[in-house]
Amino acid sequence: MEEDLLPIGQFARLGRLSVKQLRHYDELGLLRPAYVDAETGYRYYRASQARAALSIGLLRSLDVPLPVVAEVLSGASGALEAVRDGLEAELARRRRTLASLERVMAGGLPSAQVRVVAEPSCRVAVVRERAAGPEDIGRATSAAVGRLVGGWRGGVDAGGVVAGGPVAPVRLVGLFPADLGEVFDVAVALVLGEGEWEVGGGAVVEVLPGGRFACATHVGPYDQISLTAHAVLAWCAERRRPVRGPIREVYVSDPAVTSPDQLVTHVMICLEEES
C-alpha cells in the first residue's frame, strides 16, 4: 500500500464529508477509494481526491442531485442548467403560495358568494394535457391553451365568425379533476359557435354537458383560483351536494390586456346535469 494513502476517517476530515457519506458515494461510484484492503475492507484515499470530495459537498449544499453531481465531476457541459431551471420553478411556486397566503391573511379564509346558475350544453373543442401533480397544473393548463388556440381555425357562423379567427373574444373553459392525484389530465375547452370548424393541436370536438352549477366569481390571478374553488367546495359540502364532474373555470377576461389582479374567472361545480 502506498504511503500517501489516507484512511477514510482522516480523508473525511480533509474533504469535509462524513465517513457515512464517503461510503455512500463509493457505493454509487461517485467517489471511489484509491485502495480497499481486501482482508479488512478498509478504504483509503489520496489527498488529491480531496478536491472532488469538497466539490461534492459544495454541489450538494446547492441542492444539486447526486446523479447531476456525477455529471459535473465528469466534465459534462450544461449539467447544471436543469437544476437551475428546477430551482427557478420551485421559487416561482413558493412565490405563488406566498401570494395566496397573504390573500388569506388579508381577507380571511375563502368565503366567496356562491350562486346557483343554469348552463346549457355546448359544442367545444377540447385539448387535454397530462399534469405531474398539483404543482404542474399551471404548466399543463398553459400548454393546453397554447395547443388549442394555436391549432384552431373557425368557420362562418351566425355570429360573424370568419375563417382565421373570431371577431369576438374566444370563450375558454378549464376542466380540472376535483380530486388531484400524482398524475392526472387537465383539459381546456374552446366553446364553438354554429357552423363548420377546423381544429388542430390534438383537439377533439365534444359536447360539454349543461345543467345546474354552484358558481362563484374569482377576481385576481389565475394561480389563486384555488381559494375560490375552496369556497365553492365548502358551499357544496355544507349542503351535502356531491361534486359531479370536473371543476370548471370559465375565463371571462383576456389576460393579454387585463391586469392579473383584475382577471375575472367563474368557478363552477355541477350540481345536476341536464337529462
Per-chain topology:
Elements (H helix, E strand, L loop, with lengths): L4 E3 H8 L3 H10 L6 E2 L6 E4 L3 H12 L4 H8 L7 H27 L7 E5 L2 E10 L5 H14 L1 E3 L17 E5 L7 E8 L5 E3 L4 E5 L2 E9 L5 H14 L5 E8 L12 E10 L2
Antiparallel strand pairs: 1-3, 2-3, 4-11, 5-8, 5-10, 6-9, 7-8, 7-12, 11-13, 12-13
Helix pairs in contact: 1-3
Would you give the CATH topology of the largest domain? Multidrug-efflux Transporter 1 Regulator Bmrr, Chain A
CATH superfamily of the largest domain: Regulatory factor, effector binding domain
Instruction: Return the CATH class of the largest domain.
Output: Alpha Beta
Distance between the terminal alpha carbons, to the nearest Å?
85 Å
State the order of secondary-structure elements, H for helix, E for strand. EHHEEHHHEEHEEEEEEHEE
Low-confidence stretches: 155-168
Give the tally of structural domains: 2
Could you tell me the number of beta strands?
13
Count of runs of 4 or more consecutive helical residues: 7
Q: Quick one: overall form?
A: elongated
Largest β sheet strand count, sense and barrel closure:
8 strands, antiparallel
- What's the arrangement of strands in the largest beta sheet? 4-11-13-12-7-8-5-10
The overall average pLDDT, rounded, is 88
Global Rg: 28 Å
The CATH architecture of the largest domain is Alpha-Beta Barrel
Walk me through this protein's architecture:
The chain has seven helices and 13 strands. α1 (8-15) packs across α3. Helices cover 34% and strands 27% of the residues. The protein folds into two domains: 5-73, Multidrug-efflux Transporter Regulator, Chain: A, Domain 2 (Orthogonal Bundle); 115-273, Multidrug-efflux Transporter 1 Regulator Bmrr, Chain A, CATH 3.20.80. The strands form three sheets. Strands 4-11-13-12-7-8-5-10 form an eight-stranded antiparallel beta sheet. The chain has a three-stranded antiparallel beta sheet with strand order 1-3-2. 23% of the residues are buried.
